[in-house]
Amino acid sequence: MLKIGILGFGFMGRMHFDNYVRLAEEGADIQLVAICDLRIDELKDSKANGNMATERDVYNLDPYHLYDHVDKMLEHEELDIVDVCLPTYLHADMSCMLLERGIHVMCEKPVAGSSEEAWRMAQTAKHTGKTLMIGQCLRFWPAYEYLKECVEDGRYGSIVAGEFFRGSEPPKGWFLEGDKSGGCITDMHVHDVDMIHWLMGTPERVSTFAKTVIEGSMYDIVSTHYSYPDGKVINAHADWTLHGEHGFYMGYRVNMEQATLVFENGELKVYPEDAPSFTAELSQDSGYYRELRYFIEHVAKGKPVSVCTPESAAGSLEIIEAEIRSARANGALEMVPRKA
């Protein structure tokens, strides 16, 4: 049985908690035994803020061992897996320490605060032989996975053009401290950047326009064009300054050689060139659930993960860094490294 600890019990820690509980109830050979957060006494009786709903408003943590410091948790628990749901700037050091301790790590996105730190994480996983997977959950989100399948099997030909968008009202807390979160461009926009990377590979160049609206938060609005050798027209836009009760939105419109796919408001419509349009049948399970199920299955079987590898996540972060350089140069075309 795999014994699991969660490190960080904010919104994402609770989201992962919900799914580990579900997986255990479904018969997965796991046991969630410990939860660690510096503010655990406060958080266990309060609601977390996030752009999607968790299963519960207030969590009963009586069945679990609670800690306010990772050293205490590791001293008292024998864990096979630690799920790192801490602020981004803590990912690299914490993940590397856990890997060196012989523990498998599930680390939330973005992989780290810089690509240099991300590559250090990947190298640590490699030399320790422990599994490190990054929570780029869109790779497991049914509507995006469907798009990936279309690209892989060529059922509608190649991608000609695509636009990806996600937006929300402003987040709270450390997310608005740019030196900790990287701002919207690194924390939110990274989802679509990672999807573009996964679908189409590393672009040659990027051109980015971005704007800071909230003082100290880095870029809050970002729009990027991605240049590929075949000339496909790809854009991704993110904005976490939407007003009122707009709520969270994510979607895409991708035009392929023989079909157009549109994902919006939780529904994926497919418009083939020579057939009636239809709504794709998708799993109702979230990407969070599906990525954690994949992760624990691979750890249990001793199989390396091939989706959301730290190397691929580091490559996505290198694209983000190229976008930041472009934004600082008022949209100038910026080359992207090709390591991953």
UniProtKB/TrEMBL annotation:
GO terms for molecular function: nucleotide binding; oxidoreductase activity. Residues 144-261 form the GFO/IDH/MocA-like oxidoreductase domain. InterPro entries: Gfo/Idh/MocA-like_OxRdtase_N, Gfo/Idh/MocA_oxidrdct_glycsds, GFO_IDH_MocA-like_dom, NAD(P)-bd_dom_sf. Transmembrane segments: none annotated. It holds the Pfam family GFO_IDH_MocA_C3. Keywords: Oxidoreductase. Residues 2-135 form the Gfo/Idh/MocA-like oxidoreductase N-terminal domain. Coiled coil: none annotated. It comes from the Bacteria. This is Oxidoreductase. It comes from Paenibacillus solani.
